[in-house]
Amino acid sequence: MKKFLFSSLLFAGLISSSAHAQVSFGTGDNNLEIGGVISAYLNYRPLKAEETDRDKNKNRYKLRDARFYLEGHNSNKFEYKLQVDFANIGVTTVDPESPALYDAWFMYKAFKPFYIKIGYQDIPYSRSSMTATTKSVYWQRPEISRGELFSRHDVGITLQKSLWNQRINAYLGMYTGTGELFYQGDNDKSGAFEYVGRLDIAYPSRFRYQDFDPKNTPVPMFAIGVNGRYTKRDLPAGQAFIDGESGTYGVKVVDGKKLTLGADAAFQYKGFNLQFETQQVKGTPNSDKDVLLRGLPKELTDGYFKSGGWYGQLSYYVMPLKTILSARYEEFDINDLEAGNSKRFGGAIAYILNGSRTMIKAQYFHIQKEDPMDPQTWKNQFRIGIQLAFE
After folding, report:
1. pTM of the model
2. Among 50, 202, 353, 376, which is most exposed with the fewest C-beta within 10 angstroms?
3. pLDDT in tens, 56-74
């Protein structure tokens, strides 16, 4: 622990607090912005006393982001964005929270009923998933929105409409369903698609996707959102999904029907920011012998399983100290047909250096209870690092 604290202080001492912003170019009706994010942290996990193999490979420095983006506008008719993370190029295991490619899309905005967005993009689902890590006090999202329960990015088409000065936002999309593994080139053997819809409403003004209040909002603000996603994937006999497509917990895709429903709420006022979200998956495999049904008879399962959970988070921005304090509690159940679920508690502190996107962030997580389907070698995790956002 002493080595971790020493390394943390040394790491934080290498920080510069100079101002950062994107670079813009404009010619007539065309505008191009160049920006990016650089972030890195030190991770430390003390292992459980009963662990004998002493695998400490997670005690490390990690370059989380080395992102570069180009974002442009053309005559208020077209918008486009290309964003690449060089920190994850060549990585064999895709992290849905930090893929090598974040954005590669264009949007047509001249069609009056709604905007049309085409390409590889963030899926408009889940407030927590849609909140960029640069706009969060934490280094990682809750388990329900990290990208193991559902994909966070995919290739497809999104129709979106904003009303009432962006207080109301509606999204409807159709995507491949393979998520961050789109780079394989083809859909999986089912050839199916995933359909996503979201509606969120804010009052009394637009509520941005962030989990702290950097402006100490003088008027109470509220936002609620509901969303759903559905896919039916029928693999031919003897075929399997793309390697890694099912995710860490095996529930990201289902050979059969998968319906995911979620709701989220946010509130902020005078430096306080409160977030709540719940997600529930209902998976109905084609085969009664599917491993997701845990070998139980159909009269007990009715042919389906459920997965999901919820989290609550409270943050407070101490403006005179340029410091954000936060606490989070979360629960997650991988499969309701297997007894037990996981419970985690965490806290974070962030010091804003210059602008609300450039900060030192420290995070602590404690596993209060493990899901038997996801045993861990550790109970506590510490992270401290720096993010510099040129945006």
Report:
1. 0.93
2. 50
3. 999 999 999 999 999 999 9
